[in-house]
Amino acid sequence: MKKPIEGEHWYFVDETGDPVFYDSHGSLIVGQEGCSPILGLGFVETNDPATLRRALSELHAQIAADKYLQAIPSIQKTNRAFHAKDDTPEVRYLVYQTLARLDFKAQFVVARKIERVFRNSFHARETEFYDHLISQLFVTVLHRYTHNYIYFSQRGTRVRQVPLEQAIQNGIASFEEKWATKVRTEIWVTPQTAIGEPCLQVIDYMNWAVYRAFVKREMRYYRFVEDKVSLLVDLYDITAYPRNWYTREHPFDIEKASPL
User: Fold this and answer.
1) For the chain, how big is the Rg over CA atoms in Å?
2) pLDDT per residue over 6-29, tens digit each?
3) Distance between CA 164 and CA 169 in Å, rounded?
């Protein structure tokens, strides 16, 4: 294993979809209205977050000054933080145009919500399911730089910093066992909002492109930024295994994946 690069590296993490399987009565609701058929975790990584923040700040200023966009009722919310699901098509187009010009990489782990797997592997506990994806997301990256800063998108009280740190450590332990080595880099985990940390708006948009591809089989958003994606793991696509790990050499396309 290569010696870690001396320096700082940043990861900005968010989810797409949700970890919910059952309603309050214990009935399976996966895929029904308001309950996603997938849970995905992704990050964008960079050693220059200031450039990403500056680009988004400049875009916010551009939108605030645009007379056509000023008339959109939701534009005040948009100009606090970009959020792909809620932004208008005009704003979404401008954000993706901006992201396409920026220098960052992204990785994703997507889990199809299969009840048998949820019960057998995770004891039907949403937190176990979620944390397993976190450990998988970070299993091969935290040995590369000496100082690693991980920012999670804070969603009310859902961010659980200590368990998430443990999930990341589990990923590191898996890496160490596989490669018979010891990871000695430093890691800091911090919850933050998309307003407080604009780079979380970048992963929100990248996640939305992945979600649209899986759930709507709509690739146009993903294709626009696919050069940023270094890895996408469709974790439980058993039919496609072992070709369910998508890389630059084996690019993701929803037509290669099994239907949900």
Assistant:
1) 18
2) 999 999 999 999 999 999 999 999
3) 9
